[in-house]
Write a structure and sequence with these properties.
Among the domains are: about 260 residues, no CATH class; about 100 residues, no CATH class. Helix content is about 15%, strand content about 40%. It is built from ten helices and 50 strands. α2 crosses α7. The radius of gyration is 30 Å and the shape is elongated. This is ABC-type uncharacterized transport system, permease component. InterPro entries: FG-GAP (IPR013517), Integrin_alpha_N (IPR028994).
């Protein structure tokens, strides 16, 4: 049989006759493609056998070379199917071309529902099992049922091993009559055959999910699909398997024409078109790979800003599966937030500037930073702030030896101060051996409104606030347990500091403190602390009953932020009853939101039993803070709307945010203003 191709390498599948459509009859697909191996591309494509469609396994009949080639094909398909361009192609073609075949899933549903369902199943997390031989024609599979959770499976035909010998050869001059079998050449330029082969795989997956084209020839397909006598219907144009397969082929083919596919800084990325039939390009990560990503809210849709895979390099830092993303801040003063990462090897400060990932600092264990000998095994980064007022963030680091404040200095770090344990900072003896060395840094903030951050610290002795002076720390507050701040009797044994913020809008930070007795907000006054408010348990704050005995006193302060854009911070709080936002009014708190479990915020059904607040930030740039919430079901970004919350976006686990597959095990490591722009973004990590 003569092979037939169009210019983008999309397959035209010749069909056998006498095929009948039944729910589980095997379809034979004569998939006329010749697959290409390109050695330059091959070296950049990962060998990880994990796939967007779950785990990819190959049968014993696949050689190591064929397994690797299947991995490459799957990577191209996974990247293509994760793009917005794919969604746009599916929407256009399903709307304009799709004419349902008898037996197709959602036969009586609206076009919009069918579009959503086929995109969803194209991104299924099912496993895929591939046989390299035994298929009829070029590939074959069977008809299954939509939503099946068992493996997708298909068999390549006999051509698969035969074409392997042609891979890497020059492209045939078809106009001159050259052919691979006689002229030692291949059919088409890169990215063919990846474009075509990936389309075939997803074509087969559509069959496994219940979509059919009736038969492998036009005459029988017309009858079996319900279009007998209709000359306008064609099974290779109007059916879902062809539409999905062709969209994937189109995205890869168009990307090859418009983009430099392999011009990305990661080994598991391709540069693809951002819109169907467009010319703008973006590097897209293979969604199957573990690694790190920055997620953002774009037009109220959670998507990826950028993703990097494990084992990719950011300068001299190799991304590892056990990296610890410990803190974030603007460490080089460029108005873009960076993040600190540590590993068993050392420490890095890395950033994404909206275009590329860049290293700021990469240093191994044993490096000396102005007298501080860094060792990730016992050093702890315990706070970030601008302690010297130079406009860039520094960080506090501790060890069994002492305490330091480190700052970026070129491509390394230098020490603003380092001091050993038992050192006196004015009236505060740091990590004093007489107190069994139990100092805890509780928070960072500008507590005295001097445009520099200070350290809020407690010990078994008492509470203090330390500020940087010259090359040491100095206590502006140091008070022992038993000191009364207004009516609050401080005791570090049972007092807990729950958050720092400017609750009264006076320009300096305060802090929330709780105990078994109640709740308070304390602020610096001279060389001591005073109370902005204190209230006992069971007090009603408008509609919120604090730490109510009827709820077994399980209120949890989940975050601090300016949730209503009034230039003052509020308290995000949950209990076994529900969720609330409390603001300071006069000498008490007042609930501006108080909603019980079971309340729906948009389509998010709130329940404190399994909902977890993961962080606070302004994700849509409207000037008020929102918060990230997760559950076993998925992730949401909620914001205040009147006296309730609304959802800016929610997504279930297992779906894509750009090329990031959401998973309940994802580590939401940091929330900050990563990349360019004012909006907060999520630094997320996939370890397992």
């Amino acid at each position: 049989m003569k092979n037939k191709f169009n210019k983008n390498g999309r397959v035209k599948i010749a069909q056998s006759k006498n095929m009948k459509t039944t729910k589980h009859i095997k379809f034979i697909f004569i998939l006329t493609i010749i697959l290409l191996f390109n050695s330059n591309v091959f070296s950049q494509i990962g060998r990880n056998t994990s796939a967007l469609l779950g785990e990819v396994t190959t049968a014993d009949d696949c050689s190591a070379e064929h397994q690797a080639f299947n991995d490459d094909i799957m990577m191209f398909g996974r990247i293509a199917v994760s793009t917005q361009a794919f969604e746009e192609c599916v929407r256009e073609k399903v709307t304009n071309l799709y004419r349902k075949c008898n037996g197709d899933p959602f036969y009586d549903s609206s076009i919009e529902d069918q579009i959503q369902k086929v995109i969803e199943i194209s991104r299924s997390l099912n496993n895929v099992h591939i046989k390299c031989t035994g298929g009829s024609g070029n590939a074959s599979s069977s008809i299954g049922e939509y939503g099946r959770l068992t493996d997708e499976s298909f068999s390549w035909g006999g051509w698969f091993s035969g074409v392997y010998d042609q891979l890497g050869k020059r492209t045939c001059d078809l106009a001159a009559g050259e052919r691979p079998d006689t002229d030692n050449c291949r059919w088409a330029d890169y990215p063919w055959p990846y474009s075509q082969a990936a389309g075939i795989v997803w074509h087969e997956v559509m069959h496994q999910q219940g979509y059919t084209h009736g038969a492998n020839d036009q005459i029988n397909a017309l009858v079996n699909c319900g279009y007998a006598g209709d000359a306008t219907w064609n099974f290779q144009v109007n059916t879902m398997p062809y539409i999905i397969g062709n969209c994937i082929s189109d995205i890869i083919g168009q990307s090859g024409n418009a983009c430099n596919l392999n011009d990305c800084d990661g080994s598991n990325q391709l540069q693809t078109i951002t819109h169907y039939n467009g010319t703008e390009c973006k590097c897209v990560n293979d969604p199957a790979k573990k690694g790190i990503g920055i997620l953002k809210l774009d037009n109220n849709q959670l998507t990826d800003e950028s993703v990097k895979s494990v084992n990719d390099w950011i300068g001299g830092w190799r991304i590892g599966i056990e990296d610890n993303l410990v803190a974030s801040g603007d460490f080089n003063g460029d108005n873009i937030d960076d993040y600190i990462v540590t590993s068993g090897w050392g420490i890095g400060i890395l950033t994404y500037n909206g275009i590329i990932w860049k290293p700021i600092v990469v240093q191994p264990n044993g490096s000396g930073f102005g007298g501080w000998n860094f060792n990730s095994r016992d050093n702890k980064i315990v706070g970030v702030g601008d302690f010297n007022g130079d406009g860039k963030d520094d960080f506090v680091i501790t060890s069994n030896w002492g305490i330091g404040i480190l700052t970026v200095n070129g491509s390394t770090l230098s020490a603003l101060m380092i001091k050993p344990k038992d050192n006196w900072f004015n009236q505060w003896r740091y990590d004093a051996s007489v107190n069994r060395g139990k100092d805890i840094i509780q928070g960072i903030g500008d507590f005295d409104n001097d445009n520099k951050d200070e350290i809020l610290i407690t010990s078994s002795w008492g509470i203090g606030i330390l500020e940087l002076r010259d090359n040491s720390l100095y206590s502006i507050v140091a008070k022992p347990n038993g000191t009364r701040f207004g009516s609050w009797n401080f005791n570090s044994a049972d007092n807990k500091i729950k958050g720092v913020g400017d609750f009264n809008g006076d320009g300096k930070d305060d802090f929330v403190i709780t105990s078994g007795w109640g709740i308070g907000i304390l602020t610096v006054t001279g060389s001591t602390l005073s109370t902005l408010m204190i209230k006992p348990k069971d007090t009603w704050f408008n509609q919120w009953r604090y730490d109510a005995s009827v709820n077994r006193g399980k209120d949890k302060i989940q975050g601090i932020g300016d949730f209503d854009n009034d230039n003052r911070d509020e308290i995000l709080i949950t209990s076994s009853w529900g969720i609330g936002v409390l603001e300071l009014r006069d000498s008490s708190l007042y609930s501006i939101v108080a909603k019980p479990n079971g309340t729906r915020f948009g389509n998010w059904n709130f329940n404190t039993v399994d909902n977890k607040v993961k962080g606070v930030g302004d994700f849509n740039g409207d000037g008020k803070d929102d918060f990230v919430i997760t559950s076993d079901w998925g992730i949401g970004i909620l914001t205040i709307s009147g006296s309730s919350f609304s959802a800016l976006n929610i997504k279930p686990n297992g779906t894509l945010c750009g090329s990031w597959i959401l998973d309940k095990k994802d580590n939401i490591a940091q929330i900050d203003n990563f990349a360019a722009g004012r909006n907060s973004k999520i630094l997320v990590q996939k370890k397992n």
